[in-house]
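Summary of Year 1 activities. Much of the first year was spent building the evaluation harness for sequence design. The harness presents a backbone, in tokenized form, and records the residue chosen at every position. We chose the following record to illustrate the format because it has been used consistently in internal testing since the harness was completed.
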């Protein structure tokens, strides 16, 4: 895929941040198979780009993403998915985001529904605008907690809140999303993208990208392991960290009272 020919997203890199904007505002940023492929391709680009410390995903106009476009939804209704073709490592929509080595933040600027809700859940953090609205919507379409939302949502908000969100498909405001743990930050109206970008810039000035990567790996892996296994993994990861150049740089910068100069992750700078 040629990045210059993206038709349904916009992709921008401004060191140290990549921003992916779903760009179908007339359709409330409902995605098609093309949208999904372009988002995946752009995320892979951002992981390979050494300039990028973290990536922000947002929507153009007044919506974040309302899920699958109605035409694609109708096709899905007439042609149920072939489960045998689903990749074993990433069996749920957008689940590959959990394995990416850099932070991915959903900057939820408006309506976030259905598959858009899944996309936000799969991101590492969710920043919500005051005008954001979250809704699962699945039950209203005769569907269920698909794409592992039954696994992800209770871990974020608790079992009762998760069932309430899935059963009622109620609209959750940005402030309520933060209150129940569905989102981590609340941004003033119109400023959620800027808040997410600023967050990544702050990370780039003070934090080791390798540390971000390893911490993400450990947190995601330890959601389903015992305390003892998590402790052992942490000891092993710490032993490797103590041998890494980033540890020496972190100590030196602290002693010398200067900003650290950590190595970025990626093979190339575009």
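For this record, the design step produced the sequence shown next.
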């Amino acid at each position: 895929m040629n990045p210059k020919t993206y038709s349904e997203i916009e992709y921008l890199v401004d060191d140290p941040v990549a921003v992916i904007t779903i760009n179908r505002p007339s359709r409330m940023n409902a995605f098609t198979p093309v949208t999904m492929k372009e988002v995946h391709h752009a995320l892979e680009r951002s992981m390979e780009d050494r300039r990028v410390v973290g990536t922000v995903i947002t929507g153009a106009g007044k919506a974040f993403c309302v899920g699958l476009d109605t035409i694609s939804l109708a096709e899905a209704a007439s042609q149920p998915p072939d489960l045998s073709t689903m990749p074993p490592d990433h069996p749920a929509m957008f689940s590959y985001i959990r394995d990416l080595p850099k932070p991915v933040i959903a900057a939820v600027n408006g309506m976030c529904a259905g598959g858009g809700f899944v996309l936000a859940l799969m991101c590492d953090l969710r920043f919500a605008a005051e005008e954001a609205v979250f809704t699962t919507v699945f039950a209203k379409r005769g569907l269920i907690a698909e794409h592992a939302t039954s696994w992800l949502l209770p871990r974020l908000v608790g079992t009762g809140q998760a069932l309430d969100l899935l059963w009622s498909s109620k609209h959750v405001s940005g402030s309520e999303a933060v209150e129940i743990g569905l989102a981590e930050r609340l941004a003033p109206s119109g400023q959620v993208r800027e808040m997410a970008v600023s967050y990544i810039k702050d990370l780039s000035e003070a934090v080791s990208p390798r540390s971000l990567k390893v911490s993400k790996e450990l947190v995601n892996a330890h959601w389903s392991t015992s305390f003892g296994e998590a402790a052992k993994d942490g000891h092993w990861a710490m032993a490797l960290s103590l041998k890494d150049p980033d540890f020496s740089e972190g100590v030196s910068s602290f002693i010398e009272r200067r900003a650290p100069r950590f190595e970025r992750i990626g093979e190339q700078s575009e």
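The CA atoms of residues 214 and 238 lie 10 Å apart. Quantitative recovery figures across the full test set are reported in Table 2.
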